[in-house]
Amino acid sequence: MVSTAKNTAYLLLAYVYQKLIALFYFILLARFLGADNFGKYTFALSFAALFSVLIDFGLFQVLTREVARDQTKAKEYFGNILGFCLLSGLGVLGLIALIINLLNYPLITKQVVYCTGLVIFLDTLALCFYYTLRGYLNTKYEAWGIILHKSVMLLTGLFLMAQGASLILMILPLFLGSVFYLGSAIFFLKKKINLWPIPSFNKNILKKLLKISWPFFLAAVFSKLYSTSDTILLSYLSGDKAVGWYSASLKLVNAFLLLIAGSLSSALYPSLSYYFVHAKEKLNVVFTQALFYLIFLIIPLVFAFIILSEPIIFFIYGAEYAPSVLILILLSLAIPFMFLDFIMVALLNACERQKTNTLIHGLGVGVFIIFNLILIPRFDYLGAALAVILGFLVIFILEIISIKGIIKIKKSHLFKKIGLTFLASLTMGMVLFLIKERVHLGFSVLTGFSVYFVFAYLFNLINQKDFLFLKEIFHWRA
Hints:
86% helix
C-alpha cells in the first residue's frame, strides 16, 4: 500500500511538473516565434499527433492490463507490441509525409511536420516501455522519465531562443527531450525487469491483442480528433496567424482543464468504480459532491478569464496576440462543459458504460468537425472557438441523458449551492472589473480570488467536512 501510494504520488507530481513546464515553455515560444511561425509550429504538432493513434492502435492499454494480470507474459507481449509499433510507426511517418505533400503548404511547414512526426514516433516507442512498467504497478520510473523529458526540452529551448534560432531548429528541444525520454525508458525497463527492447512478430499473439485493443483505439481516435482537428482545419482554412492566436488562448484553458478536472476525475475514478459495485447510495453522494467541487472551481475561473482576458493575453503573450483576447472570452464560455466532461467520463467508465461513452464522443467528434467546417469560413478563428462551445455542449447534453439511469442527484440542494457559488463569483467579478485597470494583473488575480473564497466561506459553501471528503477521495489513489 505504501509503495503504491508513493508511486501514485510520484506520477501525479510528474504530471503537474509536465503541465506547468509545458505551459511556461509554450508561452515563451509563442512570444519568441511570433503568431505566424507559432501557428506553423502548433499546426505541425497537431497534424503529426493526429496520426499517432495509428502507431500503437490502442495496444498500450491492453499491454498494461495483461501484464498486470500475468507478468510471465510481459516479454512476449512487450516484444510483439514493440515490433508492431516499429513497423506501424515507419508506415505512419510515410503517411504523414505523403498527406502533407498533397496539401498546399509551404516548404517550411512541411519540414516542421516531418520533424514533429519523428518526435511523435519516438514518444510513442517510449510509451511502449512505460506502459509495460505500469503492468508491474510501478510508475516511479515513468515519473522520472517525464521530468527528464520536459527538463531537457526546456533547457534546450531556452538556449536556442537565446541564440535566436530559426523555426525549424526550435523542433530540436522536442526531439532531444524525446530521445532522453526513450533512452530513460530503455534503461528503466532493463533495470526493473531485465527486459531488452527486442521486437518480435507472432501472428497469433498480435491477432489476439489487436482484437482486444480496438475499443481503446476507437476512443483514442475520437480523443485525437477533438484535440487536433480544430487546429488543422483552422490552419487549412484561415492560415498560420489564426492558428497562433487561437492556440495561445486554447493552451491557457487546457492547462487549467488538465490540472483541475483531470486530477479530480483521476482521483475520483477508483472510488466511483468501488461504490458502483458495493454501495450505490454512496455512489450518488460521492458523485454529487465531486460535481459541486468542480463547479465551485470552474465558475469563478470563467468570470476571471472573461473579465481579465485582455490583461492576461497582453501580459503573457504581448500585443501581437491581441486577437486572442476575444478567443479566450469565447473559450471561457465552454469551460463548464469541457471540465464537466472529465467527471462524466469517469462516471460512465466506472459504471461499465464505456461503450456509451465511446458512442457519445464519437457523435461529439462528428458534430465538432461539422461546426468547424461551417463556422471557420464565416468567422475565422472565432469560428473555431464557437465550435468548441457548441461541440462540448452537445456532448454535455448527451452525457446528462446517459447518466440519468445511474445517478440520482438531489437537485434542489445542488442547485442552491450552485446559485450561491454564482453569487460569490459575480461579487468577485465586480471587484475584478473595478480594479483591473488600476493594479497589476497578479494583484488583481490575488484580490479577486480572495474575495471569492471569503464569500464562499460566508455562504458556507465549503467546510471541514468537505476537506475530509476530498481526503477520502484522494485516499483511493493510494
